[in-house]
């Protein structure tokens, strides 16, 4: 009749092991390098310029936004001039 494949029992996870993601990397990574990389990534992700400058979009982009109703502000409004310098 033939051999039947053996049934494999499902292992029950202990105390939330389902949430863990295990990654095996070869060759092994130097832990000092990982620390430096994590520090650099953190600095890049949290960087905020001290004095950001407002940028005026090109005229054809402004016209496109007005035609499609995406621009509800009047860019010549004196109340908004300090934001759009």
Give the helices and strands, then pairings:
Elements: H1 31-45, H2 59-67
Tell me what you see in this structure:
This protein is mainly alpha-helical and 85 residues long. Helices cover 28% and strands 0% of the residues. The protein has 2 helices and no strands. It has helices at 31-45, 59-67. The chain is elongated and about 85 Å long. The model has no long low-confidence stretch (mean pLDDT 78).
Features:
mainly alpha
- Quickly give the structural class: mainly alpha
Euclidean distance between termini CA atoms: 85 Å
Number of helices: 2
Low-confidence stretches: none
Shape: elongated
Mean of pLDDT = 78
Number of E-type strands: 0
| Oligomeric state of the chains in view | single chain
Largest sheet geometry: none
Strand content: under 5%
What's the order of the H and E elements?
HH
Radius of gyration: 29 Å
Portion in helices: 25-40%
InterPro entries: AtTam9
Quick recap of the structure?
This protein is 28% helix and 0% strand. It is mostly helical.
